[in-house]
Write a structure and sequence with these properties.
The protein has helices at residues 15-23, 50-60, 74-79, 81-102, 133-148, 172-181, 199-211, 229-239, 269-274, 282-291; strands spanning 6-10, 29-34, 43-44, 64-67, 105-111, 153-157, 160-161, 186-189, 193-194, 197-198, 217-221, 227-228, 247-250, 263-264. The protein is α/β, with parallel strands linked by helices. It has one domain: NAD(P)-binding Rossmann-like Domain (Rossmann fold, 3-Layer(aba) Sandwich), CATH 3.40.50.720. A 7-stranded parallel sheet has the order 3-2-1-4-5-6-11, with helices on both faces. The longest helix has 22 residues, at 81-102. The structure holds NADP nicotinamide-adenine-dinucleotide phosphate.
């Protein structure tokens, strides 16, 4: 029996979960949970069921829980607000209840989409004003996490980049590399600005924040500067060895898509003051995202 603290990752099969699961084991006894799927060796959990969440908590008896499970496709959330609410808010509520019952510390990943993106630079203390269903569900989940468990850590992210071990996750680089390898051109908006973070560096920050005493509350995490999605796509494509001629800029929002904030630059002073891990530049993020550990698997 390990004497390491037990860490339960909910949504462990997803993009961020895979990176966290690679880095957590030296310090934690790891329990990975996700929706049941053929070949999934971890725990089966559906966060929209209190009974299912309860069973996973009984199995793992966690000291720390990282809630990554969510529906995070902004357009899908807009098309089906009820489902978005059920997973992102209802699911979070069951996890919060279970953490309270077990005395477990909760780390919750939220999004810059809680802001409207009308100005350059958001601090943790700024008032949310989400434009989309997805952003509203994240803002509501943040509130219920921090109201019930004030020592929880809420990490807001503008955009996470990197590879996942398998396809079908939210990992941007798997999708991009697949299209570019097939010689397809890819279009990115040149009017949406984000400060991205690579999934490996995000996992490192998460593990550092978990260990800090009294580190509850909201933390913004992202690169030290922001970049347009088009410029990011261009630099990622070049760094992966593809022709930049395959990357095209989109200059106006596509009709029918969920509303997105124009400028989601998350200011990172708070995380800089409490963490030893340095906040990377955009170029460092791109380098780490392309060279990330999980690329070896695809
Ligand atoms: N990636 C980003 O750029 C970004 C930016 C801001 C915030 N975030 C947040 O960070 C978290 C992790 O994102 P990610 O990129 O790793 O997303 P992801 O790849 O989609 O991973 C989420 C995982 O949760 C699972 N899941 C969905 N519904 C579930 C349920 N009812 N019960 C249990 N598991 C469920 C998904 O399974 P299926 O795939 O089978 O549905 C998936 O394995 C999310 O909360 C997301 O909103 C991500």
């Amino acid at each position: 029996m390990s004497d390491k603290p037990r860490l339960l990752i909910l949504g462990a099969r997803g993009f961020v979960g895979q990176h966290l699961a690679i880095q957590a084991p030296p310090a934690f006894q790891l329990f990975q949970a996700d929706l049941p799927a053929t070949g999934w060796p971890g725990l089966a959990v559906d966060i929209t069921s209190g009974a299912s969440v309860g069973a996973a908590f009984r199995e793992a008896s966690p000291h720390v829980v990282v809630l990554l499970a969510a529906t995070s496709d902004i357009d899908e959330c807009e098309a089906d607000p009820q489902r978005a609410e059920q997973i992102n808010v209802g699911g979070a509520a069951y996890v919060v209840e279970a953490c309270a019952r077990h005395g477990a510390k909760l780390i919750f990943t939220s999004s810059a989409a809680v802001f409207d993106g009308t100005r350059h630079g958001y601090r943790e203390s700024d008032d949310p004003n989400p434009l989309s269903v997805y952003g509203r569900t994240k803002a509501r989940a943040e509130q219920l996490v921090l109201r019930t468990l004030p020592t929880s850590i809420v990490i807001r992210l503008a955009l996470v980049v990197g590879f996942a071990q398998n396809h079908g996750t939210n990992a941007m680089l798997n999708k991009l590399a697949e299209k570019l390898r097939a010689g397809q051109s890819v279009t990115f908006p040149d009017f949406e600005y984000r400060n991205p973070i690579d999934a490996g560096t995000l996992a490192k920050f998460m593990l550092e924040l978990i260990k800090l005493p009294g580190s509850g509350g909201v933390y913004h995490l992202g690169a030290s500067e922001s970049i347009s999605r088009f410029e990011l796509g261009l630099r990622l494509a070049r760094r992966m060895g593809f022709s930049s001629g395959l990357i095209h800029s989109q200059t106006t929002p596509l009709p029918g898509r969920a509303p997105r904030g124009l400028d989601h630059f998350l200011l990172t002073e708070r995380v800089r003051t409490v963490c030893r891990t340095p906040v990377p530049s955009c170029n460092e993020v791109i380098e780490r995202a392309v060279n990330g550990t999980t690329q070896a698997y695809i």
